[in-house]
């Protein structure tokens, strides 16, 4: 099948592009009225994510509105622990929860890697359906949570402000936590490999909570597992290689190490100047980011100015070249954002970077 737009693949290989590619984390979601309508019909977020036709429908919604350079699979990072038996559910206004969190060595010892074409077949079916419907329009991004970020939800039993339970586990029973991170890593590698086999053309790992760790703890409990994924995930060679992006919130201090991980791309948040991030990764990886999502609350003129600043910052830190940049936000969009502002952002990335 011919791919009509390969800008994101070229940018991740640090090859020249006619304009900087752009996609947005959480580009399919509640800020779109058509998403809210699909969700209402489905009944719930999980019913939508577990139905390949509906997952495909909402994946394509932002592409019909905006000139985006990639689609991202509509799913969730918590599908893996759900398939491990923890039972994911959502309470309106409270976010994700697990009916059976894992809190001790005995519970951790019982965990195994789920069957990717069994319990998680609905995810692979969604990837296959979306690839068919995209028909080569843009590449499809598959994704997973990082071993540490998944462990946060699995141990806390849901979202957390202080990460008290998992940090106590790290301090008191580091062996048990390493056992959990190890099974999570095996599962993430199998999950990403299965999404690739089903048709995903770019893979991203979300280490959303790596930044809540002290440097010593990050280097013990998150980074080594990201490196293992980058090294062990089989993803082909040359121009057929499926690029891997390691996104992390609060990862600025670790950029040189992430650049040496073997991943093709690193996603950064807005707490670092993109040009500084480019200098600190020295052309070893492509960079993805990094507008503060709150930029979308600004006026169209303010959004355009911030887009230009980020594009120029990257270029200035990358020896005057825009190569190796995938434009994105530094984290996901929120439900109260204005779709018209998204169009302003996407169009400005293309118009300004093409000059
Ligand atoms: O980017 C995309 O458009 C793809 C879809 C996607 C979702 N979740 C859909 C979703 C992706 C990539 C994710 C990843 C995810 N899920 C992460 C890592 C990324 C990040 O934001 O840091 C995390 C931490 C989760 C766990 C999770 N799932 C949370 C915290 C929530 C939000 C709960 C809430 O009420 O806001 C979810 C649910 C979820 N996942 C929604 C969407 C669109 C909202 C569901 C809804 O109510 O319709």
From TrEMBL:
SUPFAM superfamilies reported in the protein's UniProt record: UROD/MetE-like (SSF51726)
Uroporphyrinogen decarboxylase (URO-D) domain residues: 21-30, 141-157
Keywords, in A-Z order: Cytoplasm, Decarboxylase, Lyase, Porphyrin biosynthesis
Signal peptide positions (record): none
EC number(s) per entry: 4.1.1.37
Chain positions recorded as substrate binding sites: 26-30, 76, 153, 208, 331
Reactions this protein catalyses: uroporphyrinogen III + 4 H(+) = coproporphyrinogen III + 4 CO2
Annotated site residues (Transition state stabilizer) in this chain: 76
Pathway terms, separated by semicolons: Porphyrin-containing compound metabolism; protoporphyrin-IX biosynthesis; coproporphyrinogen-III from 5-aminolevulinate: step 4/4
UniProt-listed CDD domains: URO-D
InterPro entries per record: UROD/MetE-like_sf, Uroporphyrinogen_deCO2ase_HemE, Uroporphyrinogen_deCOase
Main location: cytoplasm
Localization per Swiss-Prot or TrEMBL: Cytoplasm
Claim: Amino-acid biosynthesis is one of the keywords in the record: no
HAMAP family registered for this protein in UniProt: URO_D
Subunit and interaction comment: Homodimer.
Job description of the protein: Catalyzes the decarboxylation of four acetate groups of uroporphyrinogen-III to yield coproporphyrinogen-III.
Family, as annotated: Belongs to the uroporphyrinogen decarboxylase family.
Record protein name field: Uroporphyrinogen decarboxylase
Organism, as annotated: Luteimonas vadosa
């Amino acid at each position: 099948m011919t791919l009509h737009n390969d800008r994101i693949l070229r940018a991740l290989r640090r090859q020249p592009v006619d304009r900087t590619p752009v996609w947005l984390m959480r580009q399919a979601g509640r800020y779109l009225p058509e998403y809210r309508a699909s969700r209402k019909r489905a009944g719930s977020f999980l019913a939508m994510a577990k139905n390949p036709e509906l997952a495909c429908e909402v994946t394509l919604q932002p592409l019909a509105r905006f000139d985006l350079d990639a689609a991202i699979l509509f799913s969730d990072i918590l599908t893996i622990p759900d398939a491990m038996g923890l039972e994911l559910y959502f309470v309106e206004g409270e976010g994700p929860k697990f009916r059976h969190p894992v809190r001790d060595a005995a519970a951790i010892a019982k965990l195994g890697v789920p069957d990717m074409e069994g319990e998680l077949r609905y995810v692979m079916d969604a990837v296959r359906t979306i690839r068919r419907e995209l028909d080569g329009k843009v590449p499809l991004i598959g994704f997973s949570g990082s071993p540490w970020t998944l462990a946060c939800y699995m141990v806390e039993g849901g979202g957390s402000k202080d990460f008290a339970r998992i940090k106590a586990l790290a301090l008191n029973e580091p062996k048990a936590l390493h056992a959990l991170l190890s099974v999570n890593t095996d599962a993430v590698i199998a999950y990403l490999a299965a999404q690739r086999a089903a048709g995903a053309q770019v893979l991203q790992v979300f280490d959303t909570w790596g930044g809540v760790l002290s440097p010593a703890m990050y280097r013990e409990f998150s980074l080594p597992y990201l490196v293992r994924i980058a090294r062990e995930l089989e993803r082909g060679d040359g121009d057929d290689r499926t690029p891997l992006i390691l996104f992390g919130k609060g990862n600025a201090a670790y950029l040189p190490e992430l650049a040496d991980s073997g991943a093709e791309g690193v996603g950064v948040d807005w707490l670092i100047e993109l040009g500084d991030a480019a200098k600190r990764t020295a052309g070893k990886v492509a960079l993805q980011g990094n507008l503060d999502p709150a930029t979308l609350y600004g006026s169209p003129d303010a959004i355009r100015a911030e887009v230009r600043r980020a594009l120029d910052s990257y270029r200035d830190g990358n020896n005057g070249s825009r190569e190796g940049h995938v434009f994105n936000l530094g984290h996901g969009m929120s439900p109260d954002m204005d779709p018209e502002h998204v169009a302003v952002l996407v169009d400005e990335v293309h118009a300004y970077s093409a000059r």
